[in-house]
## 1
Amino acid sequence: MADNGKLKLGLYWAASCGGCEIAIVELREKILDLDAAADILFWPCAMDFKYKDVEAMPDGHIDVCLFNGAIRSSENEEMAHLLRQKSQVLVAFGSCAHEGCIPGLGNLFDRQSIFDRVYLETPSTDNPDSIFPQTSYQMPEGEVHIPSFYNTVKTLGQVEDVDYFVPGCPPQAPQIWAVIGAILSGELPEKGSVVGASATKTVCDECKYDREEKRVTKFYRPHEIIAEDRCLFDQGIICSGPATRAGCEARCTSVGMPCRGCYGPGPNVVDQGAALLSAVASVVDADTEEEAARIVGDVLDPVGTFYRFGLPASMLHRKKLEGVG
């Protein structure tokens, strides 16, 4: 704690969309309560802090650091190590830090194929000399360095020791405030726990619809069908609810959209994508292998469907790199 009795708080944004930063602001009037309870020592997204400010801090000077974003580059990893060193409690805040999230789908490719696509192959790209980003370049003023772009996206927990995990894309405001309250009161669970979400329930348990587990002869994407006011999964819309941890109050299904799975694997689930795949397979209504193949063929982008938020944290982790055993 600071001399004034306030919590010393740090926030950082690595490889993510910025939604977790907006989620903090979505605390609305409680942002004033946060200001009253905590001194923000580092939040480069919102305030003028520099890395050198953190480097100058004594080790463990920050009470709690909310680190959002996956590890996509050397800069992300260096900041993960630095903030671990300077923080007493390091929190993987949001789905990107927790599981890899959307940036993690980059693990279907490698660095060079991504660079080829971005800097050479897109229709609007004019790059006749095939110039790619370099990690260093000599300028008249001196040598300029930029971070290395990694082949593989990793979660925060895969590069550093994490104390707690807060799921969600992004975490919801009530969940964030509950976590902050637990930190302030010191009523945190054992290290390594997921906080701000259910330890025993799935999204299906929170959903207003009851599953009847009807057999499915065709799968639909949400825009291909006008959903009825009943379980979306029973209508052939792939919903991640059966494989996803509760805690979001089933906000997506409550407005007729399938759960995307952003709160991570449900209780006792090791691999969220495998669990969802099992749920899908259990409702396929087919008498022959050919019929089953036709039905599951309706599922476009299987990896993006089953591992949308958790590929780096899954047992698959990534597509195999060529030439790597």
Note: The chain has three domains: 7-102+152-185, 116-150, 203-306.
## 2
Amino acid sequence: MTGIIIRSVGGIYTVEASDGVYQCKARGIFRKKNISPVCGDRAEFSLETDGTGVIERIEDRRSLLIRPPLANLDALVFVSSTCEPRPNLLLLDKFIAVARFKNIEPVIVFTKVDRSSPDEYSAIYRSSGFEVYEIDNTTAQGVEELKERLAGKLSAFTGNTGVGKSSLINCIFPDLGLETAHISKKLGRGRHTTRTVELYKLPNGGYVADTPGFSSFDTNRYDIIRKEELASCFEEFSPYIGKCRFQDCSHTRERDCAVIDALNKGLIPKSRYESYKAMYEQAEKLKEWEQGR
């Protein structure tokens, strides 16, 4: 039998197949091969006499995130609030770059638009070629458009704690009643309310995953992007790559750099370029042993 893993807790995997949902364990061979089944995996499993399942094989993965543990994502939905907390654009850009690096489509959502305008942030990312959705969680404005975008796809929702991620998922799935966080006025951030990864089935096909906050999406440890690979993760740079004076241009300081020229002409958003430059400088400091994946 074949199905998709929709939940993983304590070595028990919930697998949804065409004829029902099964609780499964994994064969010991996975531990020997240092493979851990994760949500999103397509798994072949057999049934024991007591009705429980045993995972025999994991199909080849299109993509894999280690933190949060998710496989075969079509889209990674980055949820950011317009206020309380305000967007951390460098952090957002880091995770967008990781999504592009892993060939996962980034989708950007700004919440709390009833309290502060998202126009400044939306303009940055739309001009860079990304899909941007503006959501009012109190009225569900903009939710239907997002649901249509995710139909038939395997997508994950992630975002800094307190941005309204669980509230957004509650708008899409009113019957779930996910716990939501209250924002600490002192710290300007909310409590973690999502502790595990779980897939939820969309009424019109596909799945979405609620995940822990950005602090658990550990790009520095598991998803190292080398400096030579970084520019290709910034989509708005693509028209200018290969047009610089120097073939090995880093796009940070060189003369006759086509990317810097585009920045000076207003063709590349300044905040996006500053994020690239900060990430490049960080990548330059990596030791050779740190670059092993």
Note: The chain has nine helices and 15 strands.
## 3
Amino acid sequence: MPTDGKVFVSIMAGVTINRITELLGHNAAVIRTMPNAPLLIGMGVTALSRNTAVTDEAFEFVRCIFAGLGQTLVIDESQMNAIISVTSSAPAYVYMLIKAISDGAAEQGFDSAGLLDAVCGMVEGSARMLRTSGRTPEDMIGVVASKGGTTEAALGVLREGGLENTVRAAMSACTRRADELSGM
């Protein structure tokens, strides 16, 4: 297949630029991307890397396409499998948290479907507040949690249950699977 003058853009998880060029020809210009689901509403994050056959102009053109749908991160391809766990699979982690909060609301007598919009608003507002505060996530936890208060009681249960370690383990599993798909 002639590849001269063409730039190939991949969105396949775990498929390396090297593997793509093996299939297309070693002179193929390849940009590997890892977009996430919020791209569908213009609030996505897309990581991009490229091989040396891609011109700066072609790369910038493709990056701008994705930038029109959210944020872009230009990273070394060696980080591409790991970024999947950070930006591309992570929306599912957030959805699971939203589901857990909604299920907890139902257990406390609320109509979880009726509260879904409020829970989503809480997540969006919390993310925006963190983003604009200039503070760390740990700082913002301290802003919300009063010593001896209700939030501190809830955080104790989350820590005891291993939430932070579980998320890190999930991210490692995600990256391991991407590495398996890459044949690494």
Note: The chain has two domains: 7-81, 88-182.
## 4
Amino acid sequence: MRLPQRFFRRDAVEVARALVGMELRRGEVRLRITETEAYRADDSACHAFVGRTERTAVMFGPPGRAYVYLCYGLHQMLNVVTGASGDAAAVLVRACEPLAGVETVRARRGGKSGPVLLTGPGKVGQALALDTSWSGHKLYAAGGLELHRGEAPTGLLVGPRVGIDYATPEDRAAPWRFAAARTAWVSHRKSLRPLAGTDDGAPSRGGR
């Protein structure tokens, strides 16, 4: 079942946590989201912090749409727009685990296998064959790239976001990165800790 638009009409941090375990689908490829990062409008790490630009206009809503940007001229990064229209907030999909279409994912990722396939936002974008033309795409509507309900993880990990050295110290330290516990399909694990009330976060053995 696709996630309804109202799922995304919430604070970015709340949506980032809720997206862990949900499923991304494009054609035969199905990926379970295992790691996310939240970006708020008043956050110096957010692309929209300095205001609306041609690239970031989609971040101002409506919610539930994709924001795809090119990082370092190489990596296509998938974000999910959140909050009410005008909020300029989004959630970055940092890592996933393949559920279906694994051979297609491997082919797009140069034949790699195991967690290295999808533990990084650029890898997720490559596995889904995304580019910036997907910005503005409705993730709650049928066709193309869709977000579906999935199985919530048994526990969550939390920690600071990655690659935001340009942000203020306070924003760099914000615990706005969430990941599924007990899975190997997570990046930068050393800076994560179990979220209070969840399991110990030890990764399970194995991997595709």
Note: The chain has one domain: 5-194.
